[in-house]
């Protein structure tokens, strides 16, 4: 029997990698859902706790389109006699494929294309495989970023893949060790999240597992209730799977997109499986720390089908089964200062009696649970969890991540560790290294990529005098939850030298929409060629109900910017607000393709119905997840 690790290349039809933006994300996460019936006190506290006011220090990741060519991506492959697991360290460490070798069956939704779309906290996101989510509610900031990766070994010589990163929003360290022992029917994934700070920080984790969807695929787990929410309803506890007269455990039969967070009883073994008509499919289980389990489906309406084609191409329907630290994805938990939380997950092919799987819910749960106990007895999973601590130091570096952890190590805010060699800072970190060495942050235009943390703020508070240092000080204060002192720093920056960066930040902090529009319009006049600033300016003008000014701005843009889908949409919306619906209909007839259409965004279908009342929304404009 054998267990191997090798590097390889994945060939796939895809777009170029999304680009990091210039503008930091100043906003945080909205409170998009209320707590309804059956939500207990613990969950209410977790729902209110830890929601970030800003996504600093990150910038937006966009700049992608929908023009695909054949690409080669570096990957790492773990393999034994039963499973082949393919990881993409350059894309958040995603588990892209898990093949059951005796049958040749792909257990995951292995996307045939590499197509970013605007579903993550920073915009760009990819469908397919298993995505690891750390930080705050949503697809995590590093989902399209490289992680550090290295070869490690267990004491018995079993090779393992270690991937690791410093997540800058929550300032926590992630270590993920994966391995396939010889003869093992499951892939093991050991996760450790460490808070190096002396104070607690909110933390969030969900393993987001995409699997093929079909009308006969049933999602099974150890619960008879779930917390349900969709894009129109409050979170509430409901019976599962029989809800509203329908069996919700068959997501391929659901009309609309919805989340069902299984209410797994305390002390019950946590697991979830997606099983086909033959009673076979992927199962995921874990040690007890990973408490939550979820089923998500896009729904079979026009909007849901369009979203799946948008993300994966035609005839590639998928659903998601997920596992998380809390009971729902809308919660954050307090990770104490200096603490490390760890757990081990297992992924493999489950086979159960199909008549039982597709019988009553109690019968299905029992059959799948018994099959899991045969596949991976709980003591064996516990032994795997304990053995993960015996993996040694990296033997060979396989991929490099960003240089931010190395910078924090130089700053003394993050301890160096031989088991996590973070390398050296890169060009993006050089301005901050100069601040550490010389006590002065050099002026950069565009500005240096932001940082967060009290130590950086302390360094700048005593020396910020030029526009750039004052702007960065404002960002640090804003990230610390002090908007008024941030405003003072941004105003000081503008007084020292007007820049689009500080003016944009002041526009964000403005209480009045007209003032905000004035400020960001001035920022745009200083940097009219920056497309992401153009888009934000048009959005501010729309909120301020200034369609004529928006149309004039668009008229002055170069042809390439005017042709951009988001700007064409802004033009159509401004024309409608100005009463020129003929112009709107012409733009829609010519075609408006917004490559960065946001999850849950209703702009295109709303616009169509406004100028074509009573006419069905064409599929290419229908992104509705509630009524589509």
Principal-axis shape: globular
CATH class wording of the largest domain:
Mainly Beta
- Could you name the CATH topology of the largest domain? Beta-galactosidase, Chain A, domain 5
Helical element count?
18
What is the terminal-to-terminal distance? 51 Å
Across the major sheet, the strand order is: 18-24-25-29-15-14-13-12-30
The helix-and-strand class reads alpha+beta
In total, how many domains does the architecture comprise? 2
Rg on CA atoms, Å:
25 Å
User: What fraction, in percent, of the residue positions are helical?
Assistant: 25-40%
The whole-number mean of residue pLDDT values reads 96
Q: Give the strand content.
A: 25-35%
> How many E-type strands?
30
Give me the CATH architecture of the largest domain, please: Distorted Sandwich
Query: How can the largest sheet be summarized?
Result: 9 strands, antiparallel
Multimeric state: single chain
User: Which stretches are low in confidence, meaning pLDDT under 50 for 5 or more residues running?
Assistant: none
Describe this structure in words.
With 628 residues, the protein is of the alpha+beta class. The chain has 2 domains: 355 residues, Beta-galactosidase, Chain A, domain 5 (Distorted Sandwich), CATH 2.70.98; 189 residues, Alpha Horseshoe (Serine Threonine Protein Phosphatase 5, Tetratricopeptide repeat), CATH 1.25.40.10. It is 29% helix and 27% strand. It is built from 18 helices and 30 strands. A 9-stranded antiparallel beta sheet has the order 18-24-25-29-15-14-13-12-30, covered by helices on one side. It has a 7-stranded antiparallel beta sheet with strand order 11-17-27-26-23-19-20, with no helix packed on it. It has a 6-stranded mixed beta sheet with strand order 7-6-5-4-1-8, with no helix packed on it. Helix 16 runs antiparallel to helix 17. The protein is globular, with a radius of gyration of 25 Å. It starts with a strand and ends in a 17-residue tail after the last helix. The model has no long low-confidence stretch (mean pLDDT 96).
